[in-house]
Input
Amino acid sequence: MLFEIVAFCASILLVIYAFNKYSRKKCTAPGPPHGLPILGNLLQVFDKQVFLKLCDWQKEFGDVYKLNLFTEEVVVVNGDAIYDVLVTSGDDYGGRVQAARNKIYSNGFRSIGFRHPDKEWKTMRRIAQKGLKQYGEGVANIERISMEEIRECLDKFDKTEPFDPYDAINDMVIGIIIIVSMGVKLGADDPLHQKIKRAEKLFPLAFGVDLSYLDVVPWLRNLPNKATKVFNDAIEAAREMESEIFQRSMSNVEKSKIDGVFDAINSNNEYLDKSFIKGMTNDITIAGTMTTTAQIKSMIALTVDYPKVQQKLQDEIETVLGQRLPTYEDRRSMPYMEAFILESMRYMSEAAVAIPHETLKDVTMRGYFIPKGTQIWPNLYGLHHDERFFPDPYAFKPERFLDSKGEVIPADERKYLMPFGAGKRVCIGEQLARIRMFLFMTTLLQRYTLCPEREGCPPNYDSRKSVLGIVMQMHPYKIKTVKR
Ligand code: HEM
Output
């Protein structure tokens, strides 16, 4: 029986491969040799540090090159060509990959992050952004919510023994997103908080390169084995989380208690049915927690690895705030903290290839033809570690974002720093993430000095050793805190 199934799958793959090879238009960009039949370059990409390989290939083949993955061509875009893809020609490159796993996970592309730009996508983006209230008067609300959760989190840092800060950060970030989204405060032991944690943990596993065969033959997820179980568990965890958030926030709407993003989304749903609303709850909850947690974790490691940087940050906090708690407005008088956050985001480049895009029509990029429907990977890690734009790229230097007067260099002079992407698909939670990162790091270093777990054993964070699974993850580490 097993033989029949394998033979059947192999023949389907062959048919799809032959169809793509002989019937589809081809991209004319150069790239590494095709690799194995059918699999193409898949085994070379099947690597947790694939982002380094993408940089090596850029040196060999230039800013625009192609890979063959299974039955598809993927174009990797590097250097300032990324700006063209995301901004200048954003309309042509603004699609999302219509792969089977994306479709299943997002319940038929009912999601901001996975959907092609159409009327529904526009509406979802508009109401999610309106609901997040990240600008103007909404900032004070996010500040109030964040500071309460940050204080609780920092109480957990008051320890004499070394500890791994990950769980405390993650609980704080989830706590904030729950209040911002649902208008209620839940403890870390609430079943919904636990469901979010589970969905967040399984999400990157479902999109690993090792499961990419499901994009070609999706029904293989019905065959019982360890790998497909991970995928199915991730789907089940996502559906459970979405349903519970939906039910709980609907009861708020019925009570006319409109004070969270999801209340606003639910009461605003014009022509979007509830499956879209559930998709948006997933967008905001998963994207809103996984990314910020990973970024704060690496910022803490960097302050321990670079004690002189930590000292400068604390001096600035002392001068500007003293014992007063920060507000987001204080960032304007704290250029070193701002530069530290920018440099941490560059150094980490957690969304190493953004969320892959797809061409919406036949295009020409740097003289190469790229057919409609081709996957595009904007190599943000490569851009942020490209000598042409960031000299000595593997050195951690907040000063690179300061001018001769010690002020942060203006946004238009740092257009090659794009940790949140840019253009029409730019991250919708950028402002929320920036507020949380600034308030957290400032309050943390105001309260504590961070030290290695043992003398001479700092985390030694090197972004080249990170592991890529949706977002970049550094290794676990422990720190010690000394109260100031
Ligand atoms: C440090 C934190 C964060 C980083 C580094 C980050 C980074 C990114 C990047 C690189 C993209 C893809 C841009 C592209 O494909 O061109 C993106 C998209 C997105 N992000 Fe974020 N993000 C962060 C936090 C958040 C938060 C807090 C939320 C929600 C509350 C969020 C929600 C989204 C959504 C929904 C999209 C999809 C947008 C679309 O496809 O139209 N992100 N983010």
Notes: The two ends are 67 Å apart (CA to CA). Residues 274-305 form the longest helix (32 residues).
